[in-house]
Amino acid sequence: MGIKVLGIPMSTCTARVLTSLLEKEVDYELVPIDMGKGEHKSPDYLAKHPFGQIPVLQDDDLTLFESRAITSYVSYKYKDQGTDLLRIGNVKETALVGVWIEVESQQYNPAILPIVYQLVIVPMYGQSPDLAIVEAHVEKFNKVLDVYEARLSHHKYLAGDFFSLADLNHFPFTYYLMKTQYASLINDRPHVKAWWESVSSRPAFKKVAENMTLA
Ligand code: GS8
């Protein structure tokens, strides 16, 4: 029994998990979930993910949800192979990775998600984006990115001068943002731009991004 990921490749949170598996050189099987048919709300699926969302990771008898918890699990379990994502062995670096994992989840994601949702996901369903929501979150995201610009002017990556899980977790939403006119929010900040160019040129990201095609 190997690792199974239940999800779909275009989903941001699924993409986050797949990227961690590729960075750690772990084989996996992607089991597609038919969200159009409401498979993620079926009793069988809800037994695995009580909130009825994707992704889920199954590793033998262990079933996990929440993409960031899953990428941490993958990084710990496979600490001795692939890219060193947690800097285990250096307690200070591990702590800083933890800080920036939280910053992504608590600051960056709440600001970027509604922008991407309105400009990328809503139009997929043939609806018009709510531009007031976009504007409010662009203002919020600008403030977050000012902090990133300052941080990245001192360090190549978020937790220090090494690529880590903190950087990885940013990938899927930033990837979609870069397809909108708000790519300028990243590109107008030289250190954030250089960081994104470095992060998004990694083979694991490129491979996952190939399948992040919007219907
Ligand atoms: C969010 C999962 C999520 O929003 C995580 O795993 O990180 N905090 C969770 N999943 C979306 C698809 S976007 O990847 C989803 O399943 N939406 C359907 C729904 O909520 O019904």
TrEMBL record:
Reaction equations catalysed: RX + glutathione = an S-substituted glutathione + a halide anion + H(+)
Record EC number: 2.5.1.18
SUPFAM superfamilies in alphabetical order: GST C-terminal domain-like, Thioredoxin-like
Molecular functions per Gene Ontology: glutathione binding; glutathione transferase activity
GO CC aspect terms: cytoplasm
Biological processes annotated in GO: glutathione metabolic process; response to toxic substance
PROSITE patterns (UniProt xref): GST_CTER (PS50405), GST_NTER (PS50404)
Annotated GST N-terminal domain residues: 1-82
Domain GST C-terminal residue range list: 90-215
Enzyme class, first EC level, given as a word: transferase
Alphabetical keyword list: Transferase
InterPro entries: Glutathione-S-Trfase_C-like, Glutathione-S-Trfase_C_sf, Glutathione_S-Trfase, Glutathione_S-Trfase_N, GST_C, GST_Phi_C, Thioredoxin-like_sf
Keyword Transferase: yes
Family under the similarity heading: Belongs to the GST superfamily. Phi family.
PANTHER family: GLUTATHIONE S-TRANSFERASE F13, GLUTATHIONE S-TRANSFERASE RHO
Protein name per UniProt: glutathione transferase
Annotated organism of origin: Thalictrum thalictroides (Rue-anemone)
